[in-house]
Amino acid sequence: MRVIMTGGGTGGHIYPAIAIADEIKRRFPDAKILFVGAERGLEKTLVPKRGYDIRLITVEGFDRKNLVRNVSVVRKLMKGSAQAKKIIRDFRPDFVVGTGGYASAPMVKAAQKAHIPTFIHEQNAYPGVTNKLLEKNVNTVFLGFGRAAEYFKDQGKLVVSGNPVRDEFRDKDRTEARKALGFEEDRFIVLAFGGSQGAGRINKAMVNVIKEMNGRSDIGIVLGAGSYYYDAILASFRDEGFEISDNIRIIEYIDDMAAYLAAADLVVSRSGALTVAETTVSGRPAIFIPSPMVTGNHQYYNALAVAEAGGAIIIEEKNLEDEKLIQEILALKEDPEGLKLMAEASRKCGPDKATDIICDKILEEVKIG
After folding, report:
1. DSSP single-letter state for residue 69
2. Could you tell me if 23 and 355 are in contact, meaning their C-beta atoms sit under 8 angstroms apart?
3. What CA–CA distance (Å, rounded) separates 304 from 288?
4. Rg of the chain, C-alpha, whole Å
5. pLDDT at site 294
6. What pLDDT was estimated at residue 73?
7. What are phi and psi of 149, to 5 degrees?
8. Average pLDDT estimate for 340-363
9. What is residue 218's three-state secondary structure?
10. In this structure, how many other beta carbons lie within 10 angstroms of the beta carbon of residue 292?
11. How far apart are CA 290 and CA 95, in angstroms?
């Protein structure tokens, strides 16, 4: 079996593709899997770490604010499309799976022109433009959230699978994770993050949470600040002469998210599709702060399914006050029974069978296995 996985730019597109690839390899150890991503995406570092080969093509997204720049974007798209055709011709995949991101469209289209079966996965409750454009000629559209179905035209192609999550997030032992990360067993751990580059408003709020909680023996704060904000946050503390105690950790990028989620008592984060899936599969209560700067306000709807089930609290950014966030964290800390119920509700929202559903359907369509 020969498979191309394509998509990327952010972890939200990359990690679902890796989870699907892992399941294919589990079922077919001899399968040849090639990832194809964009030259400027995170996939060029994340994918090789997982042991998969990757090819990079020249492609970028259109700039809605600077239309002149799109002349260059079109040239790169034409080059990327030519590269995609060559990859298809050289690798000869049995099928192609796209998970969104700039590289996904040229690769899926090149496969379709070569009469190769294609499949796409939409992670969010509000679909991205790329997947809506690709819908017409793909075999199947897999959905992370059933709510997304209303935005697609061909309902017969839709399969609600949930969002694929890598196996390491399932049933990871809390005690072992805490020991590995150096956290005390009885300390209340809050894990806050905003994505690989970070989220400015969450970081700003968490800086004040850190100042409030600094030095407390009963609570620990882990802030994944993101590459864009990390240095500035540390510099601001130094400039203020604020000494960070050992109950506080500020990290540029959380590389082992599965371990940190297993060790945490509470998550404070954005609500991208991948974050929601990994948090719920890990069974962690959350305070979700959806990004307002996304198409269709999809992060709000991603979080809403968990909040309605009782597994999360939503604070919209327009309503986010630092003191309110501190109060919510402390209230949850002081209500262990309520927190336990939230954890159970969160876990029930976890997409346990996503990779099975996706792989079963693909194999049915392409008549392999």
Report:
1. G
2. yes
3. 9
4. 21
5. 84
6. 63
7. -60, -35
8. 95
9. coil
10. 12
11. 34
What is each CA distance from 49 to 2, 18, 103, 252, 258, in whole angstroms? 20, 11, 19, 18, 15
Over residues 83-99, the pLDDT tens digits come to 999 999 999 999 999 99
* Cα 194 to Cα 192: distance, rounded to the nearest angstrom: 7
Reduced to 3 states, what is the DSSP secondary structure of residue 80?
Answer: helix
Average pLDDT value for the chain: 92
* Share in percent of the chain as helix, strand, coil (round to 5): 50, 15, 35
Q: Is the pTM of this model over 0.90?
A: no
Distance between CA atoms of residues 160 and 151, nearest Å: 13
- If you search the block for the tokens 């929202």, which residue do you land on? 349
Task: Note the pLDDT tens digit of each residue in 42-88.
Answer: 899 899 999 999 999 987 765 556 555 666 667 777 898 999 999 99
Q: Which two tokens stand for residue 162?
A: 């949930």
Q: Is 249 helix (H, G, I), strand (E, B) or coil?
A: strand
Token pair recorded at residue 110: 């090149």
pLDDT per residue as tens digits for the range 127-175 = 888 888 899 999 999 999 998 999 999 999 999 999 999 889 987 899 9
Q: Coil, strand or helix: which one is 286?
A: strand
Q: How many CA atoms lie within 13 A of 16 on its CB side?
A: 36
Closest CA to 77 of 34, 123, 109: 109
Measured in residues, the chain has a length of 369
Distance (Å) of CA 118 to CA 75, 95, 219, 269, 300:
25, 6, 48, 33, 30
Instruction: Please tell me the distance from the alpha carbon of residue 268 to that of residue 266, in angstroms, as a whole number.
Output: 7
Q: Which helix (H) or strand (E) holds 235?
A: helix 230-240
Cβ-in-10-Å burial (0-12, 13-18, 19+) of 253 comes to middle
Amino acid at the residue 140: T
- Exposed (0-12), middle (13-18) or buried (19+): which is 74, by Cβ within 10 Å? exposed
